[in-house]
Amino acid sequence: MFVRNCWYVAGWDYDLPPGKVIARKIIGEPLALYRRQDGGVVAIEDRCCHRHAPLHLGEIEGDCIRCMYHGMKFDPSGRCVEVPGQDRVPPRAAVRSYPTVERDNWIWVWMGDAARADPELIPFSIGPGDPDWDMRPNSLLFNADYRLVIDNLLDFSHLTYVHRKTFGGDIFAYTKPEITRLERGMRIERWVRNVPALNFTQHIMQGRYDMHLDYSVLMPCVFVMRFKVFTAGTAVEGPSDGELLLDTWTCQSVVPVNAEQCVYYFSWGAPKAAGQETSNLLAKGIYQAFLEDKEMIEGQYANIKANPDARMIGIAHDAAVNQMRILMEHAIAAEKTGIAAE
Amino acid sequence: MFVRNCWYVAGWDYDLPPGKVIARKIIGEPLALYRRQDGGVVAIEDRCCHRHAPLHLGEIEGDCIRCMYHGMKFDPSGRCVEVPGQDRVPPRAAVRSYPTVERDNWIWVWMGDAARADPELIPFSIGPGDPDWDMRPNSLLFNADYRLVIDNLLDFSHLTYVHRKTFGGDIFAYTKPEITRLERGMRIERWVRNVPALNFTQHIMQGRYDMHLDYSVLMPCVFVMRFKVFTAGTAVEGPSDGELLLDTWTCQSVVPVNAEQCVYYFSWGAPKAAGQETSNLLAKGIYQAFLEDKEMIEGQYANIKANPDARMIGIAHDAAVNQMRILMEHAIAAEKTGIAAE
Amino acid sequence: MFVRNCWYVAGWDYDLPPGKVIARKIIGEPLALYRRQDGGVVAIEDRCCHRHAPLHLGEIEGDCIRCMYHGMKFDPSGRCVEVPGQDRVPPRAAVRSYPTVERDNWIWVWMGDAARADPELIPFSIGPGDPDWDMRPNSLLFNADYRLVIDNLLDFSHLTYVHRKTFGGDIFAYTKPEITRLERGMRIERWVRNVPALNFTQHIMQGRYDMHLDYSVLMPCVFVMRFKVFTAGTAVEGPSDGELLLDTWTCQSVVPVNAEQCVYYFSWGAPKAAGQETSNLLAKGIYQAFLEDKEMIEGQYANIKANPDARMIGIAHDAAVNQMRILMEHAIAAEKTGIAAE
Questions:
Q1: A192 in the same domain as A328
Q2: Where is coiled-coil annotated (chains A, B, C) (predicted)?
Q3: Which residue in chain A has the smallest CA separation from B73?
């Protein structure tokens, strides 16, 4: 149920300060992460090849990590370079090392064939370190199959219901966006015109507005959206004209821990020029909204887990959800048969 | 392990105020319950037919309920009557609806073939709303196979041991009741003569007493008992003569959540004319006693679960237990082969 | 994965005061333990033969125990001697009784063929009740396969790493002990010369020391060590000469609850003549150190459980670990084929 040949987010950069070793589990595989002396991130199998002790309990020595059970030392490539008490290192003593890239304040780990780990495949996003945007990062654990969260992102009709307290907007359920299939995902765009502000902003925005939402969901699990709010009636031609009142980016990644859990990394922010209060409000709003998603999706997952073969009835809003599921199933099947997914 | 064609208690009526949706699981099936505008109880499958979201997170609209994931609306029969954003409702869009009856302050749900849901099959009981009796309702979750609780109710020799602190009475283990097989259960009756009061009442009853216990256990899981206490030696002919000091009813239902858990709904009460203090005492006594049962039965269930094939040695007190088990096995087998249980 | 024909520690003697019934699980089997009137320990199956109620909820009557569900009474041999309400005890009404011995303040239970329960097979140890030694007992639950704890004890190179804060001593990982195979285990002995004191004692011992460690690990799970510290350079011939600064015993037993958990019983102490402060310090040190082991071994076990077939790479320090594993596998295989393990 997982695409392997892709970049997964293993955390925000601030999760991994120099000198610290952290544990992560991605698509069921245990990882230990730490930084080399040059700051680069090492991601290795969190299981010593000797007696399977967890390497995240290890200690960093220069660019290497030492297992703190019996002292075997591994270099960033995963090769064992020292066995205390014996001169010779067994030739097969090694742990798996995973390619990593740090970009846009996310630590990306390639879980598949290392030879195919191309940083060009990392999706575009805007991180909390961006000079112009005040992105506020956060994360939540969902007790659910990660694909249910991807589904959720591909059908914004749920804003009307799940997020009636935070976002609201009856129009989301009664209109349809433009859906475009991309090479590795879906692009979804829509105008929502002459509506009240999102609920969590109505204490400061009491008028009528046009909103433009434009997002991509890329395999396996990255969501990036530009969301703009205009004075109603002014953005007649498209998102680049009109009286722009609020301009935001939100970047999100839904990372499968295993078949039953996922970590949701997300940020939302406005331009720094808009002042901190705007981004404070967005950060609070998205966190509340994602708690609403968490309750609904965890309940949905519990139902599916209890009765995995029960039939689902399709509706029109499922269009993008279904296309993305097919894309992912093709990619997973292609990896299994040894044929490249791209 | 469950009889389907029968009425199960889904809760006390006060568990379901108007405007609220509650979740229940009975014989492994998830239910969402709410009230129609006329107060009648709707019980439907707690799983939207679209993407399996839990309907107990939904919102009531008139007599209908709307799934708050993507907004599908269902009427009390479970039929989908609206899909936001599309004109046509898919013809098979529906969730299962279960027959319900509210009686004696219990909400009853029929888990089997709806065509056979005959309210006449609901057992007699006396509810907290009774004009003459001061019945005090309560409930407990047991981490055990519900049949172990039914067993427990069919053999009161355990009062001497499990309930030595609350009920006591050495005589229960050393005498036998009259056992009568009913069409759908067992009736058990006994006189216990010239004994001290039950332990939890001895601070106000220090004499010697005759007690009369007369109860029925009906498939799958209802227990109703009339319990009377007389001045010792006065009730020579039967429960209708003698110097009646305490007259009570207790109504109980043991509802399987699934194979491993059950909810125990119970009440005990005296006539209102006896004053509140009497029923206060009964309510406290039964709750303490059922905590004693819970500890014992959960320990028993843990043993059985760890070693389900270990042999049991029968004793004379098992007579009613064994007969009831056979009745239930026949009913379950009859349902499976499509032959009516009655 | 368990040797059956051996003595397992079921607890410290103070865990079982007269009149109390306690529950234990050893190699997956539930036991109820209590004391006869003469103080001797009875260990019986914690499952009544009637309806499988837990006997640890029972009550002691003289030398017998009564199941407090329906009152069946069992003598110390496990034979049912009374069924309340019937004259005849069913001939097969009995629970299993396990041989016990109390020695060195440990309660030992024989989990295998009772006919082979020879008290001579109980390993030597020194208990908290010893007249000369101030042994301080304690225990910890490990969520791990007990064999991983045995492995840990057979390779003290881990002192350098796991216990770097408490014990430390770089030399443990870089030197090797003398290993001798015993009939039912391993003996391991070593000198560590001209080193600082163990870390947790350095606030009172700032010099250089020679240390002598001499321990046996006996199947399935007993560890007994004499540990001595001398002024560096004085103990030239062996542990019996030299300027002895600290003389200690530690006795430990790792008892499998089931395949996934074990209870670690342990003590450490100095001669009473050395004063209480010394043994206070040892008790605190060993507890801290075993918390360090617990974290590492539980992490190791989680890795093994998640991926039981992953390969392990052997190193030189595994010598005693491997020999002990082979000894245990032979003993287990011999029991299965009906051939004596000894």
A1: yes
A2: none
A3: A161
